[in-house]
Structure formats: structure tokens, C-alpha cells
TrEMBL record:
Pfam families: HrpB_C
Protein's organism: Pseudoalteromonas prydzensis
Keyword set includes ATP-binding: yes
Name listed for the protein in its UniProt record: ATP-dependent helicase HrpB
Superkingdom as given in the UniProt entry: Bacteria
ATP-dependent RNA helicase HrpB C-terminal domain sequence ranges: 261-393
Tagged with keyword Ligase: no
Keywords: ATP-binding, Helicase, Hydrolase, Nucleotide-binding
Listed GO MF terms: helicase activity; hydrolase activity
Amino acid sequence: QLGTELLSFGADIRLAHMLIKAQQLDATLPGIYILSAYLVALLESRVKHAVDLNLALHSQLIKPHALFKQQLRFWLTRLKLSEVSELNTGYLPLLVALAYPDRLAKKRGNGYLLANGAGAELSEEYWHNDDYLAIANMGGHKGGRIFAAVAFTPNDITEQLSHLFTEQTRCEFDEKAGRFIHQDEIKLGAITVTSQPSKQPLDKSERAKAWLSLFKKHAFKLFNEQAESEQLLIRMCIASKLFPEQFPAITEAALVANNQWLALYLADLKTLEQLKRFNYLTALQSCFNWQQQSALNQLLPLRLTVPSGSNIKIEYQLDGPAKLSVRMQEVYGMTSTPLLAQGKLALLMELLSPARRPLQLTQDLTHFWQTSYRDVQKEMKGRYPKHFWPDNPATSVATSKVKSKM
């Protein structure tokens, strides 16, 4: 029924909504209905007028433009109203708010912040410096130039449009000040109308939300370096990419954006230093169920047992092969480079000297044994004579010891 009534006016649907509401309010706010008719006539006539709607309407009352007179006659007839010589323009903010609640705006720097979160700037013709504006017409470059508006205070519209205002508690961590900001606020969309220190104590859930906001800003760089957790993150991302049917979709960006997996673990942290030291390993593991964690350890193991019997740590990276840094003597007898993730992920072997200095990088151990190993063997025999440098490494016994103790 309301939709049919709105369309029957033949005006912009927002202005039609304003007219209907003004008619309903006229009994308690005498003069608002006739004012709404004059305002619609002004806006629909599209005549050039002052940015300040108060001035624009008063100038049309004194010396009306022909197009305005034509629109006014139409709307007075349509609404069964009579022409007047004076208008109570004090209701203008409420009328504009009824039509364009998303265009209520608060001063911000040299411009204005709209309730819908967008920014706006004043036409050079507007000389006032009002804290709040109700904007009836805007456009120009990027649609952010204000062409018609009226100043208001929140009290002008609170009684009739209380649903536009919300109360909330804002909690965030100020990194520069090194403390929590805990404020009770009244919001008008994106606009903060009032903000004062909260009367309620800071609870765990609010603190966790503040920490999560910080995490969203800094991502995993927020935390101190922790190799084990970082490697788990990389392994989970690789598993998700290589086996999408087996593991949930996980990327670093997704974990930062959808960060509720972390919330429970941050609630008891009270200082930024505690947050930075926080080990997110357990929280990260919770993103996979038990079966998925078990499969991860099988497909992308933390360590690999080499022929010498040593259990060597694997270093994973998001792009490219995993890397195994191992002393060359420990992989004698290994005839080919191992593959991970059921053959889907290559392993780059960094072969080290007895002093753990890099000697060779290879993804093809067979080829290395047959070719450039000879050059390495010659050099290493002279430098490390106590260690074993066989002529046939592919068939020799691996060792982690010197020759005398083999």
C-alpha cells in the first residue's frame, strides 16, 4: 500500500516518501506539510538557487522563478494545499532527513562525512561552516559536491527519526598511546555523534575484538617470529591448494579477513607485548579437524628420515619447492630426490659440507651423483680428509660420522 502511494505522487520516490511522512506529522508539527510542498517544488524545478535551502526558499517566496511557480502550482494542486506567504523553515532538516537519511553529514576536515560513509565537499558558494548538514542535492565530479543543503543539529531530528541513531561501545587499541580506547558512542550511520569514556568495564570479548582489529591491520607480522607456527601456516596453505577436496580453503589473506579462529585465544591477553609474544600454533591447528591434521602430517611432514637415520627438518615455502638442508654424507645411497604430497610437491635438496656450509642445490639427486659430484668430491677430500667421500655415492652407505668411527 505504501509503495503504491509513493508511486502515485509522480515524484522522485525519496521525495514522495518525505511528502507522505510530512502529511502524517503535520498535526503535531504544523506547517511541515506545506513546507514539504515548497521544498519538492524547488528541487523538482531544478532552478539555480543558493546552496543553503533556507535562503533558496526565502528567495523564491520573494521573487519566484517561472519554473518554480509552475512546479509549485502543480504540487499545491496535487496535495490540495494553498499558497502561503511565510514558511516555517525550521523543519527543513527533518524533511531532508526523511527523504535522504543517508546524506546526513558531519564536518570532517575540509569536507563532510556522510551517514553512508562517503565523503562530500561544499560548493564554493556556501560560506557557512556548520558542523552538520542535511544534503538534498549533490553531484558533480565523483558525485561528492554539495549543491543543496541545510544546517542542523542531531536534536532537530532525534525525536522523529530515533531509528537512525544507534548506541554502541567502541573498543580499540591505540598503538601510539599503548592503551585501549573504550568509548560509549551514539552513531548516525558512519557518523559519530557523541563519544565518551565507557561506564562499563572492559570485558574479554571487547578486548579480543580490539586485538583482532590489530591483527587485521598487521596480519601475521603482528606476532614475533615463530618458525614452527609460520611453517604450519605455509603447510596448511599448500595442502589447501594441492588438495582442495580434502582440506578447507585456506590462504594467509583469508585467515586475516575471517579471523574468528583466533578470537578465543586472544581474550586473556591484556598488553600489546603479550599479543606480540602470543604463539598462534594451537589456534591455527584448530582450523583443521583431527583427520585433516593427521593427513597434513602424512602429506607434508615436518621432517624427513634420510639414509643416515637422521630426522631432518623440511622447510616449506608458499611458492616453490620445499627445502631439505642436509649434510651430503647423510644421503649417500639415496638414488633419487624424494617428492612430497603424493608427488605433487618437489623437494629441493641443499647438500651441506661437514661444517654445514652449502655445497650444492639440486632437485635431481641422480643427475648430481653422476655429474658435478666429482668436482665436489675432489675439493672436499682435501678440505675434510677425515670424512667419507666415496666414488659411488649412490650405492655407498650414508653416515653422520667421520671415517674413523664408521
